[in-house]
Amino acid sequence: MAVLFPHEAMTRDITVRVAVSYLAEQSSPASGRWFWSYHIRVENNGERSVQLLSRHWQITDGRGVLHEVRGEGVVGEMPLIAPGGSFDYVSGCPLATPTGSMVGSYRMVDEGGDAFEVAIPKFPLIGPA
């Protein structure tokens, strides 16, 4: 799994895996725009269903400027993940620099009503040399 998803974090019984790709076709370095897609898999290794309620991203560009993004769910969904199940989604991130990084967290709630934060591992955004 580490080959497909090289970045991983585990909080309680939830594993978050990330793979990132630079998208040359959506980037325009001459115009100061670089674009990456990231594929995230959220795995529930616990014995209770969990629901992803919100996200919080900290996106740092190559100049060290921090951009924070908060919102409900992911890609328009608040997925319910059964025990042993997983949820995958793909999203994207534009930057005005050829490098940067992302790290964050999800707010989740289990079927018993207990809310908790789940770490999203830090991953680099690196454009071509």
Helix content estimate = under 10%
Strand content: over 45%
Number of alpha- plus pi-helical segments: 0
Average predicted local confidence, pLDDT: 96
Residue runs with pLDDT of under 50 for 5 or more positions: none
How far apart, in Å, are the first and last alpha carbons?
27 Å
**What class do helices, strands and sheet pairing give?**
mainly beta
Q: Biggest sheet, in brief?
A: 5 strands, antiparallel
* Molecular shape: elongated
Number of strands: 9
Question: In words, what does this structure look like?
Answer:
It is a single chain. Helix content is 0%, strand content 62%. The protein has no helices and 9 strands. It has strands at residues 7-11, 14-22, 34-44, 50-61, 66-72, 80-81, 86-95, 99-110, 115-126. The strands form 2 sheets. Strands 4, 5, 6, 8 and 9 form a 5-stranded antiparallel sheet that branches. A 4-stranded antiparallel sheet has the order 1-2-3-7, with no helix packed on it. Strand 4 (50-61) and strand 5 (66-72) form a beta hairpin. The protein is elongated and about 50 Å long. The mean pLDDT is 96.
Essential attributes:
five-stranded antiparallel beta sheet; 0% helix; elongated; four-stranded antiparallel beta sheet; mainly beta; 129 residues
Give a topology summary.
Blueprint: E1 7-11, E2 14-22, E3 34-44, E4 50-61, E5 66-72, E6 80-81, E7 86-95, E8 99-110, E9 115-126
Antiparallel strand pairs: 1-2, 2-3, 3-7, 4-5, 4-6, 4-8, 8-9
